[in-house]
Amino acid sequence: MKRYPAVFILLFFAALESLWAQSLNPGDGVRLAFFNITDKISGDYFIQQDRLLQLPFIGTLKTENRSFESLKNEIITKYDSLYRKPEVSVRPLYRINVLGEVKTPGSYYSTGVEKISDLLALAGGETSDADLGDMYIIRNDREIKVDAARIIEEGDNKDDLNLTSGDRLYVPRKWWVGARNIAMIVSGAGILVTLVALFVRK
Q1: pLDDT tens per residue across span 119-175
Q2: CATH topology of domain 94-176
Q3: Could you give the CA distance from residue 24 to residue 30 in angstroms, rounded to a whole number?
Q4: CA contacts within 13 A on the Cβ side of 180
Q5: CA–CA separation, 70 vs 23, rounded Å?
Q6: Which segments of the chain belong to CATH 3.30.1950.10?
Q7: CATH classification of 4-92 is 3.30.1950.10, yes or no?
Q8: Rounded to whole angstroms, how far apart are CA atoms 23 and 117?
Q9: Is 101 left (phi over 0), alpha (psi -120 to 50) or beta?
Q10: Is 139 exposed, middle or buried (0-12, 13-18, 19+ CB in 10 A)?
Q11: What is the longest distance spanned by two Cα atoms in the chain?
Q12: What is the pTM of this model?
């Protein structure tokens, strides 16, 4: 039993290494945090459409056809040559789109650590009409079904996946909400027809 925590730690770092081996795309970025220098250069920096990344004092870096880990190492090396033993953290910012029945749909950024439940929280949580049990991720034109109800309501983290660049997280509407809206429209149309008929008779 005592071995389980060590196994989980190894799995966590293996997953993190896999994510960091991925490349960054235009619209993604890096988050720099310096801890022992006075220059105000900590912050978020984003990759342009030409796949170039502009960083303070070290200039433009190419990001095409390279992993985040490779880019990170170059950034640390360049700042190490500029400052005396800088303490710097470099983390990826993967752009994720959260769509559908969430309170604030839009684009959000994941450092590779955040999971589905974290992105839902960033988007303000689900609406009252959301069908969390039928949620899915669109990744490279492929749909990955996710039962977010089990993740959030039951604490089952098995399906609480890490997200990566370009992922679209879609929360659909409960089917009966659409049926209810159609019924309301039909009912309203029926009332309108009745009122028109009454006026015509007069």
Answers
A1: 999 999 999 999 999 999 999 889 999 998 888 877 777 778 888 999 999 999 997
A2: Outer membrane lipoprotein wza fold like (3.10.560)
A3: 9
A4: 6
A5: 9
A6: 4-92
A7: yes
A8: 23
A9: beta
A10: middle
A11: 92
A12: 0.74
